[in-house]
Design goal:
Length: 390
């Protein structure tokens, strides 16, 4: 055989092998993925979120530009993979049609921060604004940088610019077609907590540690409701020193969150840690139990308050202080008066001035004696037989 032919044979084999591997990779990386999404169509109601009827950029489009400009995609991915239990953590896995209007796509490859592809409905607008202004205000220990240039200072208060609100609009768009599924996962249904473990000094210390880490950004280091995020929260964070919350009620709130406010669910924490925080928060307002029950003991005042309550309050807060199911749709929903007590002066202020950010309006026409009568009756609705102080 000719020596030249022998020399060319390995080169021919390598050429064929190279072409074969190229075709194999083309089929595996091009044809198969195309076949896997062929026939999968987006929802019929899906429209381009980045253009309005006149073809101008929407708030979502402007927010997306800010997201890109500020480099958010460096740390946050937008792709829920069908592996490693990601659907349980973030929500339904990503679909090809979700990015049909995205140029460029922002799938990302790194997750220093959480994936954002299912952010719609997961947290409130005011939570996002507080987080952008100072991430440590809502997530203590976060490595995310501050974005103070997205806000303006007016006196002693910080307010978001249009650029900030547009960015939040974009975040609240992500995963919009899976919003009901995500909300059902993030905001658990109402739970009933029957009893708490015996409190210990060790739990108290652990609870304070966890409170400072997870809660102080909104509720303040002392629990007075004045934390770093105060300028952005509507309704404001609760003043935990002005209300008596049984341990079981705190646990329920921590597990469920308060939909419609910046209070998220902490259901991902262990039961042991949830009880530790519950014990600590319970202690912050423990002193309010006695004065509230003293108000409730004023029989004549309580009876007059009952008539006012039936006329003005029962529609939302329900007969006997148990909120009817129809009012649970309000976000945030009215409070069950059977499960908590308020400092009389604080409760009188809410009756008089309302609670901004909620459906609770002020009753300015009430006289001071009427307000006190109403405070007495509302305090009497607390279930003292269920929540006995230890």
């Amino acid at each position: 055989m000719n020596k030249d032919v022998k020399a060319e044979r390995p080169m021919f084999v390598l050429l064929v092998a190279g072409l074969g591997f190229f075709l194999l990779s083309f089929v595996a990386m091009g044809v198969f993925p195309w076949l896997s999404v062929d026939g999968i169509k987006p929802p019929e109601e899906m429209e381009n979120p980045y253009k309005d009827a006149d073809g101008k950029p929407t708030a979502v489009a402007r927010g997306r530009e800010t997201y890109i400009h500020e480099g958010c995609w460096h740390c946050h991915s937008q792709f829920v993979r069908p592996v490693a239990n990601e659907e349980f953590r973030y929500g339904p896995r990503s679909q090809a049609w979700e990015a049909m209007f995205d140029v460029p796509q922002l799938y990302g490859t790194r997750r220093i921060g959480p994936d954002l592809s299912r952010e719609a409905g997961r947290r409130s607008d005011d939570w996002h604004l507080a987080h952008l202004w100072n991430p440590r205000a809502t997530v203590p220990g976060s490595v995310m940088p501050k974005y103070p240039w997205l806000f303006e200072q007016q006196g002693e208060t910080w307010v978001p610019t249009e650029q900030a609100t547009d960015l939040v609009a974009y975040l609240q768009y992500l995963g919009i077609y899976y919003k009901p599924d995500v909300r059902a996962q993030v905001w658990p249904s109402r739970v009933t907590v029957s009893g708490s473990p015996q409190p210990t000094a060790l739990q108290q210390g652990r609870g304070e540690e966890l409170f400072q880490h997870y809660c102080s950004g909104c509720h303040g280091e002392t629990g007075n409701g004045v934390g770093m995020a105060k300028d952005f929260l509507k309704p404001s964070a609760s003043n935990l020193t002005a209300r008596y919350l049984p341990r079981e009620e705190v646990f329920r709130i921590l597990f469920m969150g308060s939909d419609g406010s910046a209070m998220p669910s902490f259901a991902e924490l262990t039961e042991k840690d949830l009880w530790a925080i519950s014990l600590y928060v319970h202690g912050l307002g423990k002193s309010q139990r006695a004065p509230a029950l003293e108000m409730a003991a004023k029989a004549e005042s309580r009876e007059r308050g009952a008539r006012l309550y039936k006329d003005k309050c029962q529609m939302c807060h329900g007969e006997g202080g148990l909120v009817p199911p129809s009012m649970e749709n309000l976000k945030p929903s009215p409070k069950h008066f059977r499960d908590r007590l308020y400092e009389p002066a604080y409760l009188a202020g809410v009756i008089r001035n309302g609670r901004p950010g909620t459906a609770m309006v002020g009753f300015t026409a009430f006289s001071d004696p009427e307000v006190q009568d109403l405070v007495a009756y509302i305090s009497s609705l607390f279930d003292v037989t269920r929540y006995k102080e230890e």
